[in-house]
Amino acid sequence: EKHIIERKIDVMKAEGVTFRTNTHVGVDMTAEELLQQFDRVILACGASQPRDIRVSGREAGGIYFAVDFLTSTTKALLDHNMAEGTYISAKDKNVIVIGGGDTGNDCVGTCVRHGAKSILQLEMMPKLPDTRAENNPWPEWPRVNKTDYGQEEAAAVYGHDPRVYQTTVKEFLSDENGQLKAAVLVKLAPEKDAATGRMTMKPVEGSEYTVEAELVLIAAGFLGSENAVTQAFGVQTDARTNVTGLNGSHRTSVERVYTAGDMHIGQSLVVRAIREGRDCAKEVDTDLMGYTNL
Q1: Distances from the Cα of 151 to the Cα of 48, 95, 105, 145, 204, angstroms
Q2: Residue-wise over 55-84: b if at least 16 C-beta within 10 A, else e?
Q3: Domain at 2-48+224-289, CATH from 3.40.50.1240, 3.50.50.60, 3.20.20.370, 3.40.50.2300
């Protein structure tokens, strides 16, 4: 509920936090300005760069990143009461969601509420067992099949689980106007890579089939932070564009600049981001005061 978030923001304002919204760091305010005004700067911009897929026909109209689809729905709900034309709509469309994580589940649930004609959710990996395997005893995290609200709603509306396992998109097909009309899917099977010895999912020859699709949502995870902020500050990043902490700390390669959260460790869970924020605050407090009570 948004009022709970607003209440927390009000508490933080009362504690002395100033929020500057609609401000693009590196554009509306330079890194130099921030470093002149503040003793320390913490970069905690998340890992918002979505992972794309390399598939023939990717440029067809009707293919979106999941975060853009979900954001458009939320903004339309809050700003326009879901007025037609104010969001990416799944109504009466055959939808394919690529990715089996939490974001993919949100896409499935949202498409159900839009009134999609059909929904397929593609997962590259095999279906997990319904009960623990012998090599996955308690108290280890249970590696078992779970059904979230999105899949439950889709099953209730369409009569079946939307998930299709060990399957991916081989090609997108478009009409004469460049709009998506179908997708060629292919089955996958585990195969050991001769070079690395690792098991990878490989296409099964002759397993291709075509399904109608007017909307595809890519929920394949996130790569790292946006480049604009890291380039503005000139901080060192790793191969995944995560901001590097020196010697396992939250200090970056630039003096007085720190990093925390997904921008530091890569895409993860909110509980890890909270821990990152606390650890970073403790580190900054120690550097400024010489000690910390945090």
Answers
A1: 25, 14, 7, 12, 26
A2: bebeebebbbbbbebbebbeebeeeeeeee
A3: 3.50.50.60
- In order of 86, 92, 110, the CA distances from 97 in angstroms are 21, 15, 11
Short-list 92, 87, 143, CA closest to 116 = 92
pLDDT tens readout for residues 262-272: 999 998 889 99
Range 183-209 average pLDDT = 93
For residue 206, CA distances in Å to 170, 199, 209 come to 12, 21, 9
Contact 63, 220 (CB under 8 A): no
Q: What is the pTM of this model?
A: 0.85
